[in-house]
Amino acid sequence: MTWLLQLARRIAPTLVALVMALLITGVFILIIGENPLAALGALFDFGDSATAQANSIGVWINRATPLFLSGLAVSIGFRMGLFNIGVEGQYRVATVIAAGVGAAIVLPAPLHILVIVLVAMAAGAAYAAIPAVLKTTRGVSEVISTIMLNSIAIGLAAWFVRSPFADPDLGAGETAATRPIDESGHFPGLNDLFGTLGLEEPRRPVHGFVVVAIVVGIVMAVVLSRSRFGFELRASGLNALAAAANGISSKAMVIKAMLLSGALAGLVGLPDLLGSAHRFQTDSFVAGYGFTGIAVALLGRNRPGGIALAALLFAFLDRAGPRLQSEGIPPAAVTIMQGIVVLSVLIVDEVARRRLRRREERRARAQDPATRSEESAAQPEVSS
């Protein structure tokens, strides 16, 4: 019963925040003159036919996978007290380099995919090393440097796709893109799994990279909670001076945390690259995962399990976007709802944290003999 009570205490603030978010969003929908109940029905409408439902589930999976990886990458910095706002640029650079290298080599299928994954992680880590070095050597804020590097990444990716990795077979009027990756570098999809489970197969590819994301999440959960690195990361984030007194170098932890965060960021673009696109193309590249990953990490409280649930929630809302538009609700409603969810969770968590702190302070004062004697002495004597 004790663990059930603890679980309920952890889940209750999030559930309260979600209810608040739904109510606030309902008020917003009323203000724009639409029906909140129709919007709520559209959120949970996966389609009328079996094929439409399978397609909706596939879109949900495809959207949740990069959001989870992005949130995981951001959470590494948050645990250290670092704000890696550069996941957006890191996964853009990593994706274009992985696409170019993957198209330039031909290897057996498992090895080919492994090389592409390692190249993407190395490229993301290398790009994240720039703000890490600037912070540890020059004291440059990682917030400023990573935001600036996001803008540089756009131009850098455009140069890669037009010069060293450009597809020579594309015509002058076609959109710049890298060479296509050979079939041995394609990650198997999950469409056949739907048929195995007796469901209709989606018409669009369902990225099998979700399996890799689950494995990465499990590994990171173990590393962050059971390893020396995870302990040093938490210790440095909670109190850098105390950690340094125990022989933990804050500068070394900044480098390690940013490199790991960048390596995970390098995986964000791979579900689309290896699952369906098989090349980097400027007009079809899906941007925005890095910035949304910040909200996902906050909502998931920087824990892999919570980040997975937050990614599923955000992907669920994104999936409902077209259906909401059919009900006359603008696409911005989804973004507003996501923002309200994060703000509600943060506000409810802060209120709960303050109440818990006041309760602990009262309990400590009640158990302190010196405090009790002072309170007794301060009370006026009552004459008989």
UniProtKB/TrEMBL annotation:
GO terms for cellular component: plasma membrane. Keywords: Cell membrane, Membrane, Transmembrane, Transmembrane helix. Pfam families: BPD_transp_2. It is found in: Cell membrane. The chain crosses the membrane at residues 12-33, 64-82, 89-107, 113-134, 143-161, 206-224, 257-274, 328-348. GO terms for molecular function: transmembrane transporter activity. Signal peptide: none annotated. Residues 358-384 are annotated as: Disordered. Its main location: membrane. Residues 358-375 have a biased composition (Basic and acidic residues). InterPro entries: ABC_transp_permease. It is a multi-pass membrane protein. It comes from the Bacteria. This is ABC transporter permease. It comes from Phytoactinopolyspora halotolerans.
